[in-house]
């Protein structure tokens, strides 16, 4: 397997996002130690760019995607992406959708559904639009084509009105396993901030680290890719708490896909 560290912060606009790049690098080191893989750091921009068409830092995000797509050309798989904001998981999931076809489903472990469009977003932050883009909607520049057909939200508890409307019309499910092969997207804000305090956009409540690891261990279908995003802390003790999740994810990825 490969580990791609994507120290992108421009998809988040909160102050705490300033430390996302450093948190990404620290978390990717631990992931590398656990998986015995040297992380590849994708050369994303450290700059900002203006809000265009309702998306903050839009030009920078497009440039960052080009760097990610170049890294995703590597033939060895599967890939564990360590973000960065949740927008850093859009390119790898889009590539997985191409590679694995319609049966690919996405499990979106996140306190937020990330189902905004530029017109419903309260912030202009692309990380809040990431899943909507993967489902083929929102800003056409980012809308996946082919789109992901099936996604399940896990742990969502801070939902904007435009996101609720998308859920109500059945764009995503709230339980079950979304396909015969799955991509795991794990925004660390899915966790209870009382246990892990290092996420960029924490929300009260949430899942325990052990519950997330157990849910991954119990998946009945192959895991073809994964992303762990929104780590804004460099506190070693805090990051070490995440080891059970990294173990579960790397074990699932290394198990591979039966041919
Ligand atoms: N993956 C995340 N941390 N998303 C935060 C999104 C917050 C809010 N819903 C927004 O669109 O701005």
TrEMBL record:
Q: What is its EC number?
A: 3.5.3.1
Give yes or no: UniProt keyword Metal-binding.
Answer: yes
Keywords annotated in UniProt = Hydrolase, Manganese, Metal-binding
Has the keyword Metal-binding been applied to this entry? yes
Q: Which molecular function GO terms apply here?
A: arginase activity
Q: List, alphabetically, the CDD domains matched.
A: Arginase-like_1
- Family in the record: Belongs to the arginase family.
User: Which protein is depicted?
Assistant: Arginase
């Amino acid at each position: 397997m490969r580990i791609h560290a994507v120290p992108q912060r421009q998809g988040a606009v909160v102050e705490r996002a300033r430390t996302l790049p450093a948190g990404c690098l620290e978390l990717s080191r631990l992931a590398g130690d656990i998986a015995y893989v040297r992380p590849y750091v994708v050369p994303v921009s450290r700059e900002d760019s203006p809000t265009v068409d309702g998306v903050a830092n839009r030009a920078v995000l497009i440039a960052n995607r080009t760097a990610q797509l170049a890294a995703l050309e590597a033939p060895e798989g599967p890939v564990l992406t360590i973000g960065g904001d949740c927008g850093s998981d859009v390119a790898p999931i889009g590539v997985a959708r191409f590679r694995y076809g319609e049966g690919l489903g996405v499990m979106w472990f996140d306190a937020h559904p990330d189902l905004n469009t530029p017109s419903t977003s309260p912030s202009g932050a692309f990380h809040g639009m990431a899943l909507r883009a993967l489902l083929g909607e929102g800003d056409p520049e980012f809308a996946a084509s082919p789109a992901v057909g099936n996604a399940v939200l896990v742990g969502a508890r801070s939902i904007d009105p435009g996101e609720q409307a998308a859920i109500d019309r059945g764009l995503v499910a709230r339980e079950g396993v979304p396909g015969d092969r799955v991509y795991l997207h794990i925004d660390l804000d899915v966790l209870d901030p009382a246990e892990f305090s290092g996420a960029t956009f924490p929300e009260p409540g949430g899942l325990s680290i052990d519950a997330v690891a157990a849910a991954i261990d119990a998946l009945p279908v192959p895991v073809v890719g994964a992303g762990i995003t929104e780590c804004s802390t460099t506190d070693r003790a805090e990051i070490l708490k995440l080891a059970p999740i990294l173990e579960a994810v790397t074990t699932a990825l290394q198990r591979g896909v039966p041919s």
